[in-house]
Amino acid sequence: MISVSKLLCDLDAESDGLRYDAADGSKEPQITDDKQERPVVVWNTTKRCNLYCEHCYAAADQEGAPNELSTAEGKALIDDLAEFGVPVLLFSGGEPLVREDLPELVSHAADSGVRPVLSTNGTLLTRERARELKEAGLKYAGVSVDGLPERNDRIRGEEGAFDAAVRGIEACLDVGLKTGLRYTITEHNVEDLAGVVDLLVDVGVDRFCFYHLDYGGRGADISDVDLSPEATRKAVTDLCDLTREYHEAGEEIETLLVGNYADAGHLVEYADREMGTDRARLIYRYLQRNGGDPTGERVADVDPVGNVHLTQFWQGYSPGNVRDRSFGAIWSDESNPLLGALREREDRLSGRCADCAYKGVCRGGSRLRALAAHGDPFAPDPKCYLTEAERDGNAALSRIGGDAAADAD
Amino acid sequence: MVEKTDRTGGSNGARSADGRRFEVFVREEEADPLRHVGTVAAPTPDAAHEEASKLFAWYARDVWVCPAEETHRYSAESLADEAGDDAGTGESGDADEPRVYEETEGTPTVSCGGAPAADAADTDGAEGSR
Hints:
A: alpha/beta; TIM Barrel; B: 3-stranded antiparallel beta sheet; 1 helix; 3 strands; RSAM-partnered protein (chain B); CHP04031_Htur1727 (chain B); PaaB_sf (chain B)
């Protein structure tokens, strides 16, 4: 997760400490003052969902999975995560609001010292439920909207889903629960991106997370409508421009990019081109602390039946199940060949990633997309959109030079 | 005399939210023990072997794949004592759950094409595009 607004516009946020080890420089109260050593965990609390989105990595449906973790097991999992030092637990799904015990689980996380946040389609969020979750200790609700009404409803498989999601956002804002947008960019909705930001800023939203499509679950089935590298480059450039325009107009929106660490290199290049080499150098150093693609390291997932995954998108493989071993025991077991290899991936990346000048801040991008495209988790990410000159270090990095480039080694 | 470990089979039951899964065991060299390296989602044993080969069995001598649902697990520990007593959401969900909430919370206060305005607040720390 890369904060465009932080890097381009110096916007402070309480998650800077998590993302950039930058708590010292932020005026915002921080989620953590410590360098992140434990993963943020996504828990798909159920497979059941009231919508049917075309890109759902969890392949959610109207039926839950058999043998989903019970309330008691969920609480034990949370205890386990707290003991391991997990800083943030993202309640996800399916649609987590279909679980009636969600407030109880959120409260248990908050009491255990794990920051509870929510990923929801927003359509079941009433003012009453938002208030209940806030009182339980929920810190943030990310609501998925994937376009203006017509496109959103087509993508999410239900007429009226857009209006219902916006009502859910308004319910959160009404009760003082922090909320933001989640938006997965594909050919189907890239044209709506700016319009959705404009519209939701009017509602009162000031946080916008944009996801590149990853090739897991139903996301793998629609990889043919993923943006081309050229179109991705344009979309990210447009988002950078949009963020700066808002900030120049006095609207300090927070914008973030998720799921493609080619964005790291691109932000350095963008800043060098549009804002000067000093800014590009500063951004490069922040991104070094960010650490690149977090798969198997700074993000983890637990699915509805307890399988641990290396990211939430990579549901096809699990190194273990929390019903058998604690999360900490699974996550710390580097005798697992894939976990171990991912944690020393710089030595294994192949093709154009092997000698890329941005390898230190990208770490190869999505290993799941590499697996889907090439059958090899250490092959190049097909969604890298950097130019050959940028990858060779002959563009911004040649001007940043000296310290920043040397730091990457 | 050492007391025997008391193990139960309480952690059995379905282990997949996305179709068939296989437990994967790998032996690197002939003299090595078989090592459990996780599970893969796959429709057939051959597909599971192929997937495991891509992920980690690069040089392994032996790869065994066992249907996860056919694996009976006995352990001295369980995730929660009450495991299985209150079945979470399971598959017994309310089929009448509205696909879009119809409660009269009002309609959105904006329409398409609005201009920048207002403010709010933020944060999470994780991600998930669903």
